[in-house]
Design brief:
The protein has helices at 6-13, 17-25, 32-45, 52-59, 73-78, 80-95, 117-120, 136-143, 166-180, 204-219, 234-245, 259-271, 290-293, 305-320, and strands at residues 64-69, 99-103, 125-129, 148-151, 161-164, 185-190, 225-229, 253-256, 281-283, 300-303, 330-333, 335-338. By secondary structure, the protein is an alpha/beta fold.
Length: 347
């Protein structure tokens, strides 16, 4: 069977090859009726569309945006917040006629030593989600001169960013426990790089949340017990929660880095015979679907994850266009404490 080409379609419709090409690459150059006739003929002939590489070369654009993740893909898709963010980015890019390309770390296990996605994959721009500031992948994106937007991380001086007001959200969570009368408070945060003040530095959400919790607790004269758990595997959180709750001077309340950490903490508490919230108050963070799936439903801090993805795409489209905003945007999305059933006055 002969290969179907643009000329094949042109002969069927009775127009020039250029007119057929415009139907696919410059639809605004044709009437709606003519374009529909051309597309119908292409479908009848089994045309698969213009060669993507040739089209990208002609346009000077790939039609794809990279999304650099701090974690391996398997871990990202196990996390409800990361999954919601990825979905919102993909949906927003679809509305712009663009595709999303997920970029894994160049040093990922099993990856060829000479293959670095941030260096080698064709893209028109990239969204950098969390990621260690020292990541060589970010350095490659910057060296390529690609338009970049930072999300949930400290922004580069000349790049737009989208962050959440994690400090205010954490402060509100701690103040809620203080108002309930708690004085023995523990924090289960994300294991990361810590500075001398005990604040995680390599992960902006962890850093800002820790700062917010500490500000509120220190203002009330409360010195929290702080423990840090790895995001994966789950037993890390279980072990830390058990150590905190199985001590004679156990806390009466726990502030958790995420809803996932909080759910695990509640499960450990129940396994030790502690009732939530009668014996132990637990506060999460994110207001993910986990918060309302567990019983008791979780008091947590709400963040607008879908909007975060939408704003990231909007900011990227702005700097990919001909009129780059000056100064660059620094978006800080609000948070809100959501009080449910997992907190109460201390016993």
């Amino acid at each position: 069977m002969a290969k179907v080409t643009l000329q094949s379609i042109a002969d069927r419709v009775g127009v020039s090859r250029m007119t057929v090409s415009n139907a696919f690459s410059r639809p605004d150059q044709l009437s709606g009726e003519l374009r529909e006739r051309i597309l119908a003929a292409a479908d009848e002939l089994g045309y698969v569309g213009p060669d993507p590489a040739a089209r990208a070369l002609a346009r000077g654009r790939t039609g794809s945006v990279g999304l650099l993740l701090t974690d391996e893909l398997g871990e990202a898709f196990q996390d409800a917040v990361a999954t919601q963010f990825l979905t919102s980015v993909a949906d927003a890019l679809t509305h712009e006629g663009l595709a999303v390309t997920l970029l894994t770390s160049g040093g990922a296990a099993g990856a060829p030593s000479d293959y670095v996605p941030a260096r080698d994959v064709a893209m028109d721009g990239a969204i950098v989600y969390i990621c260690d500031p020292a990541s060589p992948d970010i350095a490659w994106l910057e060296r390529r001169g690609l338009p970049l937007v930072s999300v949930d991380r400290e922004p580069a001086p000349d790049a737009p960013s989208v962050n959440v007001d994690d400090r205010a959200g954490a402060r509100a969570a701690a103040e809620h426990l203080i108002e309930l009368g708690h004085t023995r408070v523990a924090i289960i945060t994300l294991r990361s790089t810590f500075d001398v003040a005990g604040v995680p530095t390599a992960n902006r959400p962890a850093s800002e949340r820790m700062t917010g919790w500490r500000e509120a607790l220190e203002a009330a004269g409360i010195e929290p017990v702080v423990a840090a758990a790895a995001f994966r595997p789950r037993p890390s959180v279980e072990e830390i929660a058990r150590d905190l709750l199985d001590r004679p001077d156990r806390p009466t309340a726990v502030l958790c880095f995420s809803d996932a950490f909080a759910v695990t903490t509640i499960q450990v508490a129940e396994s030790l015979g502690l009732r939530v919230p009668e014996d132990l108050s637990v506060v999460g963070y994110d207001d993910s679907p986990l918060a309302t799936a567990i019983r008791p439903q979780l008091t947590t801090v709400h963040q607008e994850v879908a909007r975060k993805g939408q704003e990231a795409v909007r900011s990227l489209m702005a700097i990919m266009g001909p009129d780059r905003p000056d100064p660059v945007e620094r978006i800080l999305l609000p948070t809100a404490l959501v009080v449910r059933d997992s907190t109460a006055p201390p016993p």
